[in-house]
Amino acid sequence: MKILVFKKVGSMMIVASLLMLLSSCHENSKRLFPSKRKDSYLITYSKNEIVVESDNGATHFIYKNGEYFTSSFGSDSIVFFSTVKDYRLKITDDTGLHYKIIIEKGDNGVYKTTTYLITDKGCDHPTISYSYDSNYKILQVEKLRYIVYK
Questions:
Q1: Is-contact 123 93, C-beta < 8 A?
Q2: SS (HEC) of 82-128
Q3: Which terminus of the chain has a smaller tally of CB atoms within 10 A, N or C?
Q4: Kind of pairing between the strands at 111-118 and 31-36
Q5: Calpha distance 16→97 (Å, rounded)
């Protein structure tokens, strides 16, 4: 059992070393590697608002016309949670970064909103995903951070 653990750790160290060597060979290239991290969230529901708090601050979602809207991208008119219909939105925030938001109904009555960062090369990288039921109760938050190696 201990030998298996040491082999896994050793393999991970070798892979990490190879990645660092490969990335150092190209001076101007950047690579994105996904890093899943378990974050904790405090979700507060009120009559017309959902607040999701994490270590990075709080995000407010405001209820209007049967859907929840966010002001995270510089406008309070961007739908973020919907059980009314599916959406595919492209947004540019105040800093000039481009995002795509996909809202869709999945299996078993679970809805999902996923936000993607669109890079200057046109690649979509998922940043955060919310799963929720038909009453907008958030069931799961999955955040995916990217580590940039130069």
A1: no
A2: CCCCCEEEEEECCCCCEEEEEEEECHHHCEEEEEEEECCCCCEEEEE
A3: N
A4: unpaired
A5: 29
Largest CA distance in the chain: 59
Q: Are 133 and 109 in contact (CB under 8 A)?
A: yes
DSSP per-residue codes, 18-57: HHHHHHHH-SS--EEEEEE-----EEEE-SSEEEEEETTE
The tokens 């995270």 sit on which residue?
72
pLDDT digits (tens, 9 = 90+) for 4-24: 434 444 445 544 444 443 343
pTM for the whole thing?
Answer: 0.69
Tokens representing 86 are 């599916």
Q: What is the pLDDT of residues 107-134, one digit of tens each?
A: 889 999 999 988 877 778 888 999 999 9
